[in-house]
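User: Can you help me understand a structure? I only have the sequence.
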Amino acid sequence: MICLAIFTVGCAGVTSPTAEQVILYKDESAVPDNCEKLGEVTASVCANTTPCPAEVMKKNIRERAFIDYDADVVWLYNTTLSGTKVVGYGIAYQCY
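Assistant: Let's start by predicting it. Here is the structure, written out as tokens:
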């Protein structure tokens, strides 16, 4: 599998309008009680050609949660390095 490079200027600005609509939590207990689980989401980026791969993966998983489920929250429960990819695993939520 070939990794495509996504270049950004520094790590601070890794975001998108879609991703900005979704709050990311790293701790499940931080997810508000009034949220309904919608489903699992995953995202991955090439670790050796993407600047700030963990930050880009977080942006991508927030986008997936919004696009796939119209979610407004995602809990990032696991991050792994799989070969040359940083892979994030999360649960999408809709909060009321």
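Now, to help you interpret it: The helical segments are 53-69. The domain at 20-95 is CATH 3.30.110.70 (Translation Initiation Factor IF3). Let me know which part you'd like to focus on.
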